[in-house]
Amino acid sequence: MTTELKLSVVDAINERHSVRKYQKGVEIPKKDLEEILELAAKAPSSWNLQHWRYVVITSQEMKEKILPIAYNQEQVVDSSAVVVILGDLEADKNAEDVYKPALEAGQIPQQVYDILLGQIKGAYANNPQFARDEAILNASLSAMQLMLAAKAKGYDTCPMGGFDRQKLIQALNIPPRYIPVMLISIGKAAAPARPTSRFPLEKLVVWESF
Ligand SMILES: Cc1cc2nc3c(=O)[nH]c(=O)nc-3n(C[C@H](O)[C@H](O)[C@H](O)COP(=O)(O)O)c2cc1C
Ligand 1 centroid vs 102 CA: distance in angstroms? Predict the structure, then answer.
């Protein structure tokens, strides 16, 4: 493994902020982007179905096209790349690809393979709400991991939920199988993020039970 991360996970978490002002014209080497995406794709997922897909936008022309769809949020055009995080609404179709190799390598017996595939097909059958929840839930885990990986590699990010879903689907020809979950800008900060705070644990944590 050649990945050299610059920050520890704790540092990356503490130092990640939503950066909205970027140094314009900075190109992220493709190798860095791919490394960040590979790290993002190591996120956990239900049944390991890996519900995430990424549309990576680096050309200025495409970023300009997305700008009005993202309600003119400057980070879309000023950052080096915008990653559209998609969730797979038909992730059950990934089951064979995930489990066949394990079966063939003798890592799981046929019986376990049959049980897993049965569970997955059963859960997704006639249950679009479940499929949608799973797509968004699992893709969001990858999105978070992408932001931390980017930070660890020396880049800043901003997650964006503020965009017109239908217009984005049209602009990028996103097939109906995928749901846009969020956009993430990646680049080098030109100005620090707005300071934010977090609730104290007393407000957030319930020990054992409500
Ligand atoms: C799902 C989601 C959607 C968001 N949408 C936007 C957005 O459209 N535009 C924006 O500037 N920030 C957006 N943010 C960033 C939040 O405003 C930011 O995470 C929050 O204020 C905490 O700040 P921090 O990320 O710097 O810690 C979004 C964050 C999340 C998680």
Answer: 38
